[in-house]
Prior knowledge:
The structure holds 2 protein chains of 2 kinds.
Chain A: E1 2-13, E2 16-27, E3 31-35, H1 42-49, E4 57-62, E5 65-66, H2 71-76, E6 78-81, H3 93-103, H4 109-119, H5 135-147, E7 153-157, H6 165-181, E8 185-190, H7 193-199, E9 202-207, E10 210-215, H8 217-224, E11 227-233, E12 244-248, E13 251-256, H9 259-270, E14 275-281, H10 285-293, H11 304-315
Chain B: H1 2-17, H2 20-37, H3 46-53, H4 58-87, H5 90-95, H6 101-117, H7 119-129, H8 138-162, H9 171-185, H10 198-206, H11 208-222, H12 227-251
Helix pairs in contact in B: 1-6, 2-4, 2-7, 4-6, 4-7, 4-8, 4-9, 4-11, 6-8, 6-12, 8-11, 8-12, 11-12
Membrane topology (chain B): Multi-pass membrane protein
Transmembrane segments (chain B): 20-38, 58-83, 140-162, 174-191, 227-248
InterPro entries (chain B): ABC2_TM, ABC2_TM_bact-type, ABC_2_transport, T7SS_ABC-Transporter
Amino acid sequence: xxxxxxxDLTKKYGDFVAVDHINFEIEKGEIYGLLGPNGxxxxxxxxxxxxxxxPTEGDAIVAGYSVRKQPxxxxxxxxxxxxEVILDDELTAWENLEIxxxxxxxxxxxxxxxxxxxxxxxxxxxxxxxxxxxxGMRKKLEISMALLNSPEIIFMDEPTIGLDVxxxxxxxxxxxxxxxxxxxxxxxxxHYMEEADSLCNRISIINKGKxxxxxSPEFLKEKYGGDVIEIExxxxxxxxxxxxxxxxxxxxxxxxxxxxxxxxxVLNAVGSQNIKSLRxxxxxxxTVFITLTGGSLEEEEFDAxxxxxxxxxxxx
Amino acid sequence: xxxxxxxxxxxxxxxxxxxxxxxxxLVSQPIMWLIFFGSSFSQVPSQFLETxxxxxxxxxxxxxxxLSVSMLFVGMFSSMSLIQDKRFGYLKRVLVTPTPKYxxxxxxxxxxxxxxxxxxxxxxxxxxxxxxxLNLSPLSIAVLFLSLFLIGIGFASLYSILTIKTSDWQxxxxxxxxxxxxxxxxxxxxxxxTFFPDWLKAISDVxxxxxxxxxxxxxxxxxxxxxxxxxxxxxxxxxxxxxxTVIANKELQPE
Lengths: 316, 255
């Protein structure tokens, strides 16, 4: 059974197409990732799937209901976690939970709230102001709030952005745990390759509003992966190699079956005097992204200012 | 259905009661008015006060006026608080739940109006301490609070309507500048309209602040209220809140 089916889901702001006819289907119980650079359309997609924004075209069935026709029914059956942790810092953890319960129409919420706080190990701090919580505790409180209405699906928008390496790893464990223990489908967005790789059953790679590949991390790596030798050039050179060479912004990205075996051959072809720096990328989702788009995730970092300027213009 | 509104309304109240700064403002603002502005006519011959203000104590005259004017500022605070929720993402948190947008609007408006009422007892006690004699009965107090609550709701709605689409901190200040000062000075809150030019009188005659100030004076000083004023305030507040509900439901965006 499917938790989410997106059909030609599209969002336009004036002439700017933020999300462009995307299609995907998420099975119940999956951890599904939308992987892409900032500004690829991930948050806009979540906004449409959670009923916050109406799609311009297309529709999605979330927890059995159309986001276009029955957004309220969708909202009753989902949980949502922001990237920056949004709580009322002036209120206690318990008061935050209470408001959430009332807004989500949860009857007998107290028992469930206590059970959730216990599960996340923050029960003893329930009467402390949320503003006094550490980042990790805030995340846990926010997840408790998202689970309060026993949702079928939890949406997590960049759940580990801004976290240090250790907290990020424990967040990954937590997401896996709640996925299992509360049998909740998870749709998360991320621009971290290793996050999608280690956490998700399946992912869709999204770039410039379009889904360019979908599958399990293993499948994608096998199909589009392969090692990539990345060379920063001192000056422009013509390279003749029996491999696929992508030239972009003074960088060469050479797709090879095995980086270790091909590196000498590549060095000879390029000429070591022309090389400023060299990097071997072993097959990963990052190399999948390079293969599919020609650019690496970091370089596709989107010009956020330009994006918001466009949206503002479109809204006017 | 009321659960959502009351949860959001209680949040507004808790945020006000727990803020030290809010208390400092709520207490100091009316007292500043009474002491500084109220003293400006203290050396005026009592005969002049009697003919011009129909009272021998100017503080008694401006007490209901200032309370009415303070409800204008309450409107500004509701719209600022809504903008804060937009900027910190809290509105998004609320709107991914099955909560209608009008509940968010109504909670801000009622929260703001309630916050404004906290000033009334402080002002009354301060005035008594300054030697003003007031006609305090359950009825006069109830009418005073009701009229203040009605204009509070009306102006909080008006402010929120005017700033519903923006998330700019500065918008409420601009609106305040364009609304508060003209409405304050074109009302009978601070001075009677006896010497107003005709155009200012015309504005004063439709200005809800005038109605609330006059009604307050009537119940607190003469004890003989004109009930039509209360009707006028009720119409103003109901029209504004309906307008606001419709507009908020259509235009309120999470960010």
